[in-house]
C-alpha cells in the first residue's frame, strides 16, 4: 500500500499542507523543528490511532487551532483506493473511511504504517507496554478475530478491577463469571500472540543478521502474563485478596511481555544504546516483512531522522534492503542522507510548517 496524497490541518506547527508522494522513496528535509516529523506522525496516526511521540494528546493540535485533521488517499496493491480521515476537536476522535463514519479500529485495519524514530529504542529498553503495543498491532493486522477477543478481555478486566476496588467484602461468586471470561478471552489473545511471534521470528533473525551480525543468533522469549501451564481463572481466584489490596488485576494478558536475547548479548543490559536502536529497527522491519507476507502488500515505512539515528554503513544497509521491495518509504532529515544519493526519490523541503516539493 502507499499514500498517494496526505493532507494535514492543525497538526502541531502545520496549519495546512498537502503532499503527493511517490511510490518509492520520499525524503522530507529541513531544519529541526520545521515540521518534518509531524508528517510521519500524521501517517502513523492513521495506522495506529495514536502518536509515536510521548506527551499530552492536546499537544498534537496546533496552538490556537479549533482541531486537527488528517486526510489521505491510500492505494492498495490491488489498485483499490481508500479515502481515510481522522480528526479531533476537543477530546473526541472521529474516523472516516470512504466518506462514512467508522470506528477507529476499522480505519487502523485499512492502513498499515511502521515507523522508526528516535524513541524506538524504548521497544527494547522501555516498559512492557511498548512491546505489547508493537505485538498487538501486528496481530491485529493479520488475525481478524483478535480485536473481538481483546475487547472481551478488556471488558471483563474492567469489571473485575471495579469489584476489587469496591469497599467492603465482595463474594467470590461475584468475581467468578468475570474471571472465567478473562480466562477464556485471554486464551484466545495468547494463542494469537504466540502464533504471530512464531511467524515473526524468522524475519527477526534475518534482520538482526543484517544489522547486528556480531551479536550472534537471536532468541525470543514470550511471557503471557501468568505462569505457563496454569489456568488463568484459578490464578485469579487465588490472587483475589492480594489484588484487592492493590486495587487492580496483577495477572493476565494485559501483563504479557516479550524480550530478545543474543548469543553474545544474553541480557538487554549487554546492548549499547546504538545496538538497542538497531535491534528496534530490526523488529520494525521484520514486522513490515511479515505484514507483507500475510496481507500481500507492504506497509508504509517511515524513518525519522535516519542520518542522526544510524551511522552511514547502517543507513546504507537499510536503504539497500528497502530498494529491493515494493514498499513506500518516508524519510526525514536536515539534508538528504548520503545513502540516498543514487536512489530515485521525491524530495520535499519543510520550513516553518510549510512543505514544498523539490524533486
From TrEMBL:
Residue ranges annotated for the RecF/RecN/SMC N-terminal domain, each copy included: 4-335
PROSITE patterns: RECF_1 (PS00617), RECF_2 (PS00618)
Record keywords, A-Z: ATP-binding, Cytoplasm, DNA damage, DNA repair, DNA replication, DNA-binding, Nucleotide-binding, SOS response
UniProt binding sites for ATP: 30-37
Family annotation (InterPro entries): DNA-binding_RecF, DNA-binding_RecF_CS, P-loop_NTPase, RecF/RecN/SMC_N, RecF_2
Pfam families: SMC_N
Main localisation: cytoplasm
Subcellular location: Cytoplasm
Family: Belongs to the RecF family.
Function: The RecF protein is involved in DNA metabolism; it is required for DNA replication and normal SOS inducibility. RecF binds preferentially to single-stranded, linear DNA. It also seems to bind ATP.
Record-linked PANTHER family: DNA REPLICATION AND REPAIR PROTEIN RECF
Protein name as catalogued: DNA replication and repair protein RecF
Organism field: Dyella acidiphila
Classification of source organism: Bacteria, Pseudomonadati, Pseudomonadota, Gammaproteobacteria, Lysobacterales
Gene assigned in the entry: recF
